[in-house]
Design brief:
heterodimer; A: alpha/beta; Rossmann fold; five-stranded parallel β-sheet; B: about 260 residues; alpha/beta; nine-stranded mixed β-sheet; two-stranded antiparallel sheet
């Protein structure tokens, strides 16, 4: 029996997201011979462009076209998915901010298992799907088994499944609009108003070559001075991870990560940053990365080129003095 | 507004180094310091602020063993009016759906206009709020980073999406929201505040009071099971600089000079 797997496609302004092909890779980890169907919601030219872009990688592309889907609406999307998916379906969705909105409730409405934020899938034995997840902000991994006999909703972490370069034999686009809408767009208790773009701050860290980035390890606002001093000595700019913004010690515009800025410096100094995938997701362009953290198991050491296991409160002032003294 | 906030007692990652136990069956539990899940503090603070603006009450609820009572008391010391502990041996081993089902049963015993959860907890799943909303047929929004009341039928919220942009929405009450860190500044709770709630009676509800069958919860009601715990493969990983502090500083400065890290 060929296993059928459905993949939810994220797209923006007519271009499919990187995850669109990662979902193919994830589906093949479930079953290398799976028949993989893409499901694309949207409207008009943008929707058609996204469908055409991915059609060669999928057996089938289901498109659902409605004006109301021009802005993302997880609540309506969930209802529409329930209408078109067959019983006991296996659905893969990117674990991004839309997937987090859509997926948990979808698993309930489909009466299916939910496997959140998978970073790897090791295969299926009968109806037991074996996967890898992470806990404690990536400090610890777990193998999990998910009973998929009643179907499953799986969210796959963006960037964790490597998209294949070679395209498949190509499939066809099937318009599922009529079947999904059944004459009317679903009523939901939520109405989209607008997207408010994040503010650009006094310093645009997306343009910096040298970033001195600070995390929770700084412990107290009074200690921030040592970070500014080091950035000054290096000729770089100060950036940070989420907890520093939450504590209001730096502006939101200084935050690196999927919910902050995407930066591409030449040198990235991570001070007291544990290195969650959300933070690492905002660092592009393979900079020379130095991590300084007192926890030797911090995930940041897996991403960094050079690491120092030390308390930044002790180490950073010494480093700054040395740089200032060596000129 | 009657507000229910779902909270969880978790190992405090800022106080502990989380390590895997000897045979990989769990994390090392000895000497762990626990606290309330960080995201939940923001959810409770938000609930208290809403109550202080428009009236009503804040109830905190958790699913856990008797030790989970301490986080209920802590959040009551922050300012929540009531606390409920959902506890029963048959709840052990519940997955996200099991936990959502337990909370749903409690929700149906009361009358709430708004349910808040933290956006994430220690297991990184971020699932209970969305599942609970679907079970109740209430609207849901995740990753909420700003909130304002409109009237007693609806509220205006902002979801934090990619790039730190805000997706602004209007959502009908009753609804379920998952709260992102940074939405507010959770108030400090001192020892004196916690002492004041030390003798408050916290009602405990088990499977029977909630009308739940033991098959729907715990291991038997669970589709997702952990097989083992392990430390992620470090891959190539960083070259860790060794030596005295002076030597490390010296090496690092040399590396920075070579790689263009000092202008």
């Amino acid at each position: 029996m060929v296993r059928q797997v459905f993949a939810y496609i994220v797209h923006k302004e007519g271009a499919a997201d990187d995850t669109a092909l990662e979902m193919v890779a994830a589906a093949k980890r479930i079953d290398p011979d799976a028949s993989i169907t893409a499901i694309v919601f949207g409207t008009g030219d943008d929707l058609n462009a996204a469908c055409n872009e991915i059609v060669s990688s999928y057996q089938e592309v289901w498109k659902i076209d409605n004006e109301a889907l021009s802005c993302p609406d997880a609540e309506a999307t969930r209802t529409l998915l329930v209408r078109i998916l067959p019983g006991k379906a296996i659905v893969i969705i990117p674990h991004d901010t839309f997937g987090m909105d859509l997926a948990p409730g979808l698993s309930i409405k489909l009466d299916a298992a939910y496997l959140p934020d998978a970073v790897d899938i090791e295969g299926v034995d009968e109806n037991r799907l074996k996967a890898v997840r992470q806990e404690y902000s990536g400090q610890i991994s777990t193998h999990v088994v998910c009973d998929i006999s009643g179907g499953a909703v799986i969210t796959a972490r963006p960037g964790s499944f490597k998209a294949e370069e070679t395209k498949g034999t190509g499939g066809q686009i099937v318009d599922k609009t009529a079947e999904a809408l059944k004459g009317e767009f679903p009523e939901t208790g939520r109405r989209f108003i607008e997207v408010v773009e994040a503010e650009v701050g006094d310093v645009d860290i997306t343009r910096s070559d040298i970033l001195v980035s600070v995390g929770r390890g700084i412990e107290d606002e009074d200690n921030m001075e040592i970070v500014h001093d080091l950035a000054r000595a290096m000729g770089g700019d100060v950036a940070c991870s989420r907890p520093v913004v939450d504590a209001k010690w730096l502006e939101k515009s200084r935050q690196v990560g999927t919910s902050g800025k995407t930066v591409k410096p030449k040198v990235y100094m991570a001070l007291g940053i544990s290195g969650s995938f959300q933070h690492q997701g905002g660092i592009k362009g393979a900079p020379f990365m130095i991590a300084i953290n007192k926890n030797p198991n911090a995930p940041i050491f897996q991403a960094a080129d050079v690491g120092v296991v030390a308390d930044i409160l002790d180490f950073v002032p010494e480093l700054t003095d040395k740089i200032n003294g060596s000129r | 507004m009657e507000i229910l906030v779902c909270i969880k007692r978790v190992p405090d990652t800022s106080e502990n180094e989380i390590i895997v136990n000897r045979n990989g069956t769990n994390i090392e539990l000895e000497d762990l310091v626990y606290s309330v899940n960080e995201w939940d503090n923001y959810a409770v603070e938000e609930a208290i602020q809403i109550r202080d603006r428009v009236g009503g009450s804040v109830t905190v609820v958790t699913v856990g063993d008797e030790e989970a009572e301490e986080v209920v008391r802590r959040e009551m010391a922050m300012g929540a009016d009531k606390g409920i502990l959902l506890s029963d041996e048959v709840f052990n081993g519940s997955d996200g759906k099991g936990v959502a089902g337990i909370i749903k049963a409690e929700v149906e015993k009361g009358k709430y206009d708004l349910i808040l959860t933290g956006a994430l907890a220690d297991d990184g799943a971020g699932q209970v709020g969305g599942m609970l909303a679907a079970m109740l047929d209430w609207p849901y929004a995740s990753l909420v980073i700003c909130l304002e009341e409109i009237d007693d039928k609806k509220i205006k919220i902002g979801r934090e999406i990619e790039g730190g942009n805000l997706e602004m929405l209007e959502i009908n009450l009753p609804c379920v929201l998952s709260i992102q860190t940074g939405i507010n500044e959770p108030r400090y709770v001192g020892i004196r505040g916690i002492r004041k709630t030390a003798s408050v009676e916290i009602p405990v509800h088990g499977a029977e009071e909630l009308g739940l069958s033991s098959e729907s919860v715990g291991e038997s009601g669970s589709n997702l099971k952990r097989l083992d715990y392990f430390v992620p493969d470090p891959g190539e990983g960083a070259e860790i600089l060794e030596g005295s502090a002076d030597e490390i500083v010296e090496k690092l400065v040399e590396l920075l000079k070579v790689r263009g890290g000092i202008k």
